[in-house]
Amino acid sequence: MSSSHLYFIAPFRTLPSSPSLPNLHRIPLLVSRSSHPLTHKALVFSTGIRGVSGSGRYCWRTMAEKGKGKVEVFDSEEDLSVSLGKYTADLADKFSKEKGSFTVVLSGGSLIKSLRKLVEPPYVDAVDWSTWHVFWVDERVVPKDHDDSNYKLAFDGFLSKIPVLPGNVYAINDALSAEGAADDYETCLKHLVKSNVISVSAATGFPKFDLMLLGMGPDGHVASLFPGHPLVKENEKWVTFIKDSPKPPPERITFTFPVINSSAHIALVVCGAGKAAPVNAALGNGQNSDMLPVQMVSPEGELDWFLDKDAASKL
């Protein structure tokens, strides 16, 4: 790989095609040369910044240090949802062609809203939904028709609008206790591993999902793994339960970090200024002695952050 010099010029909306623009404050940057033409739509700098502009919208991307993944910051949640839809559809197509199935794990919160582009053209008609197998990274132990249910949230906002096969949607048994529901869900996963629906990580022996779509709470929690809770250290079980969640409802089941981090791809989708502090803790340069759960997300595969500009405001 050879390198050449370009310049970053603020304010950052577009990138110049020439380094010889006069009378502008210029910062030299090293750009890796590839077989693709260097344009303002496809530039990755050694500083980590990529610019993307067009159609009145833009985002900037940082290629964060190893272990933190790729970070994309969007001007609006609408732009984020457009990109997330394409990202998810592309991965679904890739895995469906490679192995005939696509295992995707959902979370609750605003994540389902951010997937809304998938239920619109062109994706709703173009995606091969028959290959999808849908799971939840965590679930509240409530009836499926309860407003707190992650299943209900996903069904109302996403699953009811796509032709996914009902037998390929794996919700918890809401008739069981928290402990019973966790054990039952883990048994379900083990059966699907044996039947080759879910892959297994050669490195860890834990189930390896194709894509895990995670949100994050204002306290930095992911799934139902909360700051300071003993469950963040669970390293043997695939699925466990919590009865004292600091966020209601108190009883939940959750994947453990060994399962989360065995994923082939993880997308962390975070919007809103209220989540800027934990985003900065995870992606900024500051040192924090108390590691947040979101900082423990480190898949053996690829990690992609999808942030709106408010969530990224402290970076």
Automatic annotation (TrEMBL):
Start and end residues of each Glucosamine/galactosamine-6-phosphate isomerase domain: 76-305
InterPro entries to which the protein is assigned, alphabetical: 6-phosphogluconolactonase_DevB, 6PGL, Glc/Gal-6P_isomerase, NagB/RpiA_transferase-like
One function term, GO molecular function aspect: 6-phosphogluconolactonase activity
The reaction(s) this protein catalyses: 6-phospho-D-glucono-1,5-lactone + H2O = 6-phospho-D-gluconate + H(+)
Enzyme superclass (EC): hydrolase
Biological processes per GO annotation: carbohydrate metabolic process; pentose-phosphate shunt
Coiled coil regions in record: none
CDD domains in the record: 6PGL (cd01400)
Pathway: Carbohydrate degradation; pentose phosphate pathway; D-ribulose 5-phosphate from D-glucose 6-phosphate (oxidative stage): step 2/3
Membrane-crossing segments per the record: none
Enzyme nomenclature, EC number: 3.1.1.31
Domain of life: Eukaryota
Keyword tags: Hydrolase
Entry's Gene Ontology cellular component terms: cytoplasm
PANTHER family: 6-PHOSPHOGLUCONOLACTONASE, 6-PHOSPHOGLUCONOLACTONASE 3, CHLOROPLASTIC
Similarity field: Belongs to the glucosamine/galactosamine-6-phosphate isomerase family. 6-phosphogluconolactonase subfamily.
Entry protein name: Probable 6-phosphogluconolactonase
